[in-house]
Amino acid sequence: MQPQQDPPAPAPVAGRPPGERDTRVAVDAVLLPSVFSGTPVAVVALDRDGAVTALTPVAERLLGCAEADLVGRPLLEHLHHQHPDGRVVPPADSPILAALEQARPAAGDGVFVRGDGSALGLAWAFAPTVLARTLVGGVLTFSDTAAQHAEAARQRRHVAAVEEANVRLALLAEVARVLGETDDVVAGLRALADLVVPVLADWVTVDVLAEDGTSLERVALTHRDPARRAATAARVGPLPPLRPGMTSRLAQVLHGATPQHQRMPPPDQLRSLVVDDLAAERVALGLELGASEWITAPLRARGRTLGAITLVRADGSRPYRAEDLDFAADLAARAGTLLDTTRVLSRQVSRAEQMQRALLPDLTARIGPLELAGLYQPASDLAQVGGDWYDAFVLPDESTGLVIGDVAGHDLHAATRMGAIRHKLRALAGDRIAPPSDVVARLDRVLQRFAPDDLATAVYARLDTTPRGPRLQWSNAGHPPPLLLTGGRPPRLLDDVVDLPLGVADLDRTDAEVHLGGPGGQGGAAPVTLVLYSDGLVERPGESLTAGLRRLLDAGADLAGVPLADVGPELLARLDPTGLDDIAVLTARLGPPGAG
To answer: What class has domain 41-149?
Structure first.
């Protein structure tokens, strides 16, 4: 048996004072793999001569050689550094070996040639291992630069995908906000198209089917080029009608198909695309605005197709992908919901307004010397009906009754009660000739007995003739005061008396009166206009009724001489009411003596 020899002593680190006691500790190389086995880069442990003492599995795969074949052999015999011109760098000139010999860290990258002759791009870093100020070896880490570049590219693609997803989410959120805030469906669809361009398309069209399911209209066309937007206005409007048997992609979507993706064919194949009138229009538009491909998605709601949105890209280098098809479908679904909801509410408000108008009287244009005009504007809150009403009728003594009223509430109950109260007041007024206060008091008692939960305000006025000229008597049950307009005089509010609303308590009612025209009257020879109105004309949130009445006086300052039919609309325009409440206006004009 040969006597066991001690391993060679490690070389001292440069600069160690002579004669200093050696305190180095032997390092077992087999410990190194366990330290570095979890790292994703290749790791090779070297002794002080550059021989391999251990390496990780990643290093084995990258070097194409098993650990058993490399341990104990100089690494640079298997991995040669290469000059940019292809010449192999001698081991003596290797920067890795130089760093090991000088016990200093180093890093770099370049092309290496493996033992089998294959080239490999590596980024490397070396750190010496020094114990007790003595060099015992080093650790070399390296990674495949091609793999790094590929991973970096993958990370960039991933980040781009995430950013694109965020853009889509932000766009959907903005679309939802815009569609949720609009009451005008066409304006909402145009705003949607503006949001999509240029994020997802170079230009966008939105086409809507009429409720007959045949008539088709383009309501929006937006192009990313501002110079072309003006030219696209001519392309908005009616399109060829949808007919059975049409097979173009747009027709298929309108007939109920799922979103369609289509590419513009070469010029010599365009004829094959023109299969119906809708396809012909689409191809002509694509040639005019530029089109490489498009996605057409249906505007659908409650199982019905209401139209289609088309996203078009003119640049073929940015093709649509599957996720774009899904996004277009989501976008179209939101637009379809808006369109459907608007149509449903439009039908409801139309029916509500028809009902409301049906409950109002068929106002005649003239009763005796009085010229009459009525105006009703529903609240902007769609599908609600209100309790505002006006009325004018001839009494048994040939005098004229004028009424404005408002039943509390904005629902079907308020509207139906309004109709009942209007007819009851007519009956009570015509039952016997009496002052307005008597009619209002009897109406109040009827309401308290038969409809104790109802609350209403009203002004009932009676115009008759006296030796002093026309006389207006009125009783006010909690309603805004009438407005009197007389040529040559400031507007006046008839606020002489205001009692409690109807339905509050059984109490006496009071009358007020004013003479209009004739000897000692308000108007003399000038026409006199009486304006009865509901509170929606003058009330605003946060503003007192007094302020609203001041605005009414200002608005009526020069309306005494305008045509009677224009007085109500002009007051609406000048006062600009909020639309939170419905508005009824009754105007009555008494001309000069002999008129009418």
So the answer is: alpha beta
